[in-house]
Amino acid sequence: MKHWVLHLDLASPEAWPCFQRLPELLVGQHGWVEICPAGEPDQALAPLWRHALACGEPGALPNRWLAEQVLCAVWQDAPAAGRAALPAVERLAQVLTPTRDPDSPAVRQEWAALCERSRQLGVGRAPLLHRPADGARWVGEAAISQAGRAQAPAQGL
Fold it and tell me: Residue 104 and residue 63: Cα distance in Å, rounded?
């Protein structure tokens, strides 16, 4: 099975369009995608990722459904366009029930570690799709189609 990790900074205008294209990557593939939160540990949108992280087991990356809820909260409630993150966190609280406290030191450390993990891979504001098995990386909204072409079997001969 193939495994990809999509690193997303919620403040990136490419995050939501790139995420929406994930089904293109998975068509005809046996694999899964994990979503790794990216950004700065103290960014205004950090509470949203911490809320999603607190819904899972310690150390687990958010699954696609959790990430979709976070991205919907951002792009529907528009804190990325300048409003406070509070409306988006309130929206998340209506659909997600964390099993841990999103503001706990453990979840904050988990968030900071994920930010560092993404930073070490070279993730900036643009989404980065990473295939851990061989280290392949694709950047930006086009990452999904580029990775999909790389996965396609060779034609001809």
Answer: 21
Architecture per CATH, domain 2-151, reads as: 3-Layer(aba) Sandwich (3.40)
Domain ranges of the chain: 2-151
**First-residue to last-residue Cα distance in the chain:** 26
Is residue 34 a contact partner of residue 63, using CB atoms and an 8 Å limit? yes
| DSSP H helices in the chain | 15-20, 22-26, 46-53, 64-77, 86-95, 105-120, 143-151
- For 133, the token pair is 């098995």
pLDDT, tens only, 88-118: 788 888 889 999 999 999 999 999 999 998 9
